[in-house]
């Protein structure tokens, strides 16, 4: 009897030892570069959720999307391969001002913040400490702030446009926040700018997070809310920093509000 119990324990140990590497492999985190997304999802160079899927996946991360079939509108995240850095207005809402992803990649994400639908959100398959991600302005938002348009003002001294990234752990508790100024004309700013290059945002201080939410604020606010186009572009979520690929024409101030 004792020999049988010992044999069973040995068998269980062997099975556990054998399956543990497979379990750990299954838990391996894969950054979202968006280059792994099947091009069949793209129409006219972008995906905006019109297929009704409600999300798009890259790596081991899901990016949430809200698409309104009646209005043909969306919020949350879209994906893009657009390269138009010149065309002004809403018709060019899917282009990053850089004209490409980080390090010359072809695909990146575009976030649209809607006060009606809530923050743009991404969810990891399992909690992980993210090194960081890259952000920049969209072409639409950039030229709106630089020149002004029929809905929004040209930015001047005292204005700012900022992105807040909030991380939550598996229990739903806030793990930390990062505030990134996509445009900064505050009096205390060393050099006023509108971001036009990919900017690294360090998220490691948040520790393991299960989800990130993104919201936008601006000094240009009207009766119906924010006038500045509520868009930003994002790439290489959870990947390493690529210093040699970062531009030097803009310097973005990041204010860390760790918890």
From TrEMBL:
Pfam families hit by this protein: DUF4465 (PF14717)
Entry superkingdom: Bacteria
UniProt-recorded name of the protein: Uncharacterized protein DUF4465
Lineage, broadest ranks: Bacteria, Pseudomonadati, Thermodesulfobacteriota, Desulfobacteria, Desulfobacterales
